[in-house]
Amino acid sequence: MKRFAIKDYGTAKDVLIEIEAEPRPVDDTHVRVALAAFAINPYDVALRQGAMRDFRTLKFPYVLGNDGAGVVTEVGSDVTHVKVGDEVIVHAVGGTYGEEVVVPGKKLVKKPKSMSWEVAAGAVTPWLTTYNLVTHLVGDKIGETVMIQGASGAVGSLLVQFLKVQGKTVLASASKRNEALVRQIGADQFAAYDEEDTGAIFADQADTVIDATKGGRAGEAGMQIMKTGGNFVALNDLPSEQKKTGNYLSFGPSKDYSDVEALTALTDLADKIQLTVAEVLPFTLESVVAGHETLEGHPLAGKIIIKKAE
Question: Boundaries of each Enoyl reductase (ER) domain copy (predicted)?
Fold first, then answer.
């Protein structure tokens, strides 16, 4: 079984390797999936660089990857919601960079026929963030007007669409080059952070501000945009100085969140939610290296997907 792993921490070209691995056994609670596609995420890049080593120990060679989609080939006796031959969406703890993966039954759901392999694999982590942030972290306190900073990114664009499905008014910011995309997915108002003062444009208008950027100056503008007493949610670091009274929240994964619940919600909205895919690359080590290098730069909006030939 072909898999792509890292042999140590370091640059993509130096540490990503192709390995042959023995298939893992499937117990009563697990499912084996032959993968058709997997996504490369910023988290994978951070793991490979060693940014997580202080709180997550890796045993090398380590197969990266949390997000994938494929066909069920073996099912444990305790798993009843999928069967052999089903097309599924997978959220794994690791190991999706390869031809197959074995995951607990609670970590996958059936893929709608209308959803492509690329979207199914690429939407997993950004959708889990989107759904759990809106549904569980903020919940009923989110209000009627929400500001999305970084609205062209994978999480930001899904947030815009999910909130519009719920009938919210969505304000959005992104770079000028991504304005058409952000407006097309439903944003009610748009401001280009690289050409305009988004904080001044949307000052005191949002019940909730969600900073889906990589961090930096967005926090200052976000606090301007948040109504006094509103919510400010960050996917990265919260502003070091909180200049306005409000509910400041940092989003992160939690064992209290159910993958099946969130991914089922994604499948229910399959015909209403679109994911921007920047690149679909062939199933080779060269593609994985290229995907990592692209993410380290200033990539275009959209997910990078590795897909096996059909």
Answer: 10-306
Q: Name residues of the chain where pLDDT drops below 50.
A: none
Helix (H), strand (E) at residue 89? strand 87-91
Euclidean distance between CA atoms 284 and 3, whole angstroms: 10
Which sign does the torsion angle of CA 288, 289, 292, 293 carry?
negative
CATH 3.40.50.720 residue ranges for the chain = 126-250
Assigned token pair, 263: 């991914």
Tokens of 101: 């993966």
CATH class of 126-250: alpha beta
Every domain of the chain with CATH number 3.90.180.10 lies at: 2-123+275-307
Quote the pLDDT of residue 216: 67
State how far the Cα of 271 lies from the Cα of 114, in Å rounded to an integer: 8
At a CB cut-off of 8 Å and minimum separation 6, what does 240 contact?
none
Read off the pLDDT of residues 185-242 as tens digits, 9 standing for 90 and up. 999 999 999 999 999 999 999 999 999 997 767 889 999 999 999 999 999 889 888 8
Amino acid 299: pLDDT: 75
Rounded to whole angstroms, how far apart are CA atoms 266 and 252?
19
Q: How many Cα atoms are found within 13 Å in the side-chain-facing hemisphere of 69?
A: 25
Residues 6+ apart with CB under 8 A from 25: 102
